[in-house]
Amino acid sequence: MNTFHYRNHALYGEDLPLQEIAERYGTPCYVYSEAALRERYHSFSTALGGNTQVCYAVKANSNLSILRLFAEMGAGFDIVSAGELERVLRAGGDAGKIVFSGVGKSSVEIRAALNAAISCLNVESAAELWRIADIAADMGKRAPVALRVNPDVDPGTHHYIATGLKESKFGIPMEQARDLYLQAAQHPALELKGIACHIGSQLLDLTPLGEAAARVRALYDELAADGIALQHLDLGGGVGICYHDETPPNPADYAWTLEQALQGLEVRRVVELGRALVGNAGVLLTRVEYLKDNGSKQFCVVDAAMNDLLRPALYGAWHDILPLHQSAEATQPMDIVGPVCESGDFLAKDRPLAAKAGDLLAVMSAGAYGFAMSSNYNSRPRPPEVLIGGHQHRLIRRRERLDEQWALEENPGR
Ligand SMILES: *Cc1c(COP(=O)(O)O)cnc(C)c1O
């Protein structure tokens, strides 16, 4: 699908020249394509079939309008905080399709989840399991839980986003999981719903995903033999996307890999996809402020920075940089950097560009972990978010005003 593309040398999002968006809403500005969001959700849910609930991992992009769009398409949600729970409920999400992940759920968050009657809490330690049991007992409820196991497979991704290795803080070691299930089964305030796992993010190779699913399946079979009948297997997320020249798994191959690992098993499945649903559906528009030549290097200083899009600074991540207008002029390699006072504040390095001051650029594949990781560092207001569909555009979050940054602070001398 060709959501962002050139027509007569101008970069379009669907049927809109992106320059119109930049002029109307200013820069920096996030732009998301509704057609791309719908297409991605539809492809995965269709490929995986009716026995699989696709849960959108809210942390990738938690804008209410995007949550609502997925909710209307039938998505469930994978949340990691009480804030995300509240967002999903406000966006019309079905609590009965919410799974709650994360290693550090607070008592307040556990209560909120039980009050909302979510589908399942994915438990990450024995200590957390017993805390959930105590809280549920206190509330006179049964807590629906799955243990998030750590299948100890190497997903072959950046070590900051590998979560299924032995040394990772996530999940419960496979060897301990069975014992814990047997103990949990005795507790009247716990309802054992399933098994969960999630091995990492931006996974390009399906083999580890299949391996993890097979290990989860083996545990399911073992527990069934112990008399513990579970209702679902949550196989996590992490399906990668193309940022540069990667070949990510397509939905059909992904579905086939899971099917192979779970062959013959009728039990319901859950997947938790974030990046694969939203990553390529968004771009960050930015304007060139200055060109700067320090003798050995050319810099293109733009008005977006690491506070708007952290991934390059945090992971050294690659994002394509495209001019909104293709020019015939000769390109030269430049570092595309923001105004923030950190040498780590770059969006891209050594890219051939023919940019000049005032030009508009698009930072591609910025729909996932873009706005969601943005901050006010350097007291910069966070950028607006715009949703486009066909010829239409709609502001789904306005640019922050400066005074909103200190609205919660005391200013004693005043
Ligand atoms: C982050 C996360 C996801 C989503 O990861 P993506 O790489 O965006 O698909 C799914 N499940 C859990 C538990 C997560 O922490």
Automatic annotation (TrEMBL):
SUPFAM superfamilies: Alanine racemase C-terminal domain-like (SSF50621), PLP-binding barrel (SSF51419)
Pathway in which this enzyme or protein is active: Amino-acid biosynthesis; L-lysine biosynthesis via DAP pathway; L-lysine from DL-2,6-diaminopimelate: step 1/1
Domain of life per record: Bacteria
Function: Specifically catalyzes the decarboxylation of meso-diaminopimelate (meso-DAP) to L-lysine.
Assembly and binders: Homodimer.
Keyword Phosphoprotein: no
Pfam families, alphabetized: Orn_Arg_deC_N, Orn_DAP_Arg_deC
Family: Belongs to the Orn/Lys/Arg decarboxylase class-II family. LysA subfamily.
Catalytic site: C341
Binding site for substrate: R275, R311, Y315, E342, Y369
The enzyme's E.C. designation: 4.1.1.20
A single MF term (Gene Ontology): pyridoxal phosphate binding
Source lineage: Bacteria, Pseudomonadati, Pseudomonadota, Acidithiobacillia, Acidithiobacillales
Entry binding sites for pyridoxal 5'-phosphate: G238, E272, L273, G274, R275, Y369
NCBIfam families (alphabetical): lysA
Keyword entries, A-Z: Amino-acid biosynthesis, Decarboxylase, Lyase, Lysine biosynthesis, Pyridoxal phosphate
InterPro entries reported in the protein's UniProt record: Ala_racemase/Decarboxylase_C, DAP_deCOOHase_LysA, De-COase2_C, De-COase2_N, Orn/DAP/Arg_de-COase, PLP-binding_barrel
Reaction(s) the record says it catalyses: meso-2,6-diaminopimelate + H(+) = L-lysine + CO2
Sequence ranges assigned to domain Orn/DAP/Arg decarboxylase 2 C-terminal in this UniProt record: 29-367
Full protein name: Diaminopimelate decarboxylase
GO terms for biological process, alphabetical: lysine biosynthetic process via diaminopimelate
Requisite cofactors: pyridoxal 5'-phosphate
